[in-house]
Amino acid sequence: METAKAVGVDPTKVNFVSYDGGGDLLTALLGNKIAAGTSGLGEYVDQIESGQVRVLAVSGEERVEGVDAPTLKESGIDLTFTNWRGVLAPPGISDEDRQAMVKILEELHATDAWKEALVTNGWSDAFMTGQPFEDFLKEQDQRVETTLTDLGLV
Q: Among 49, 59, 80, 147, which residue has the least CB neighbours within 10 Å?
């Protein structure tokens, strides 16, 4: 819906279809049930390489290595978004346990295996912990609230 709004289309007029995963989305796309889709690059590498699917744009801040597609911003659309994942803990976690978890995540982030996974899957390295991650989550919450408000759902 953010994409529709960014290109001047009323989000309430868009027929948004949600799928349980990339496989269902790919089936719908290849079966001409939908005109376009948004998903992670890693799920469609084979179809992209075979020419069954064409990447129109990259939604992140930077182009993806090995993919011949501009970013949305390069295409004149003032929008960026990524499919992110986070590791969360209950509110009552002790500082000691939190610091131990962050340390493990930082160590995993520094491994060659993680760096290889980033390249293989076409992922952006957006690793963050602590206050930067908390700020990111607040910004994401605000984006969702704005979208839901625009749609008249909040």
A: 49
For residues 80 and 139, the answer to whether their CB atoms sit within 8 Å is: no
Query: What type of residue is 67?
Result: V
DSSP letter at 71 equals: B
Query: Which amino acid type is present at position 33?
Result: K
Whole-structure pTM value:
0.75
Cross-strand pairs, 58 = 71
Instruction: For residues 35 and 108, give the distance between their C-alpha atoms in angstroms, rounded to a whole number.
Output: 38
The pLDDT tens digits for 115-135 are 999 888 878 889 999 899 999
Q: Residue 114: in which H helix or E strand, if any?
A: helix 112-121
Domain ranges of the chain: 1-82, 84-154
CB of 64 closer than 8 Å to CB of 71: no
Instruction: Supply the DSSP symbol for 58.
Output: B
Torsional class of 131: left (φ above 0), alpha (ψ -120 to 50), beta (otherwise): alpha
Give dist(CA 35, CA 63) in Å, integer: 23
In whole angstroms, give the CA distance from residue 125 to residue 109. Answer: 9
Tokens encoding 95:
């500082």
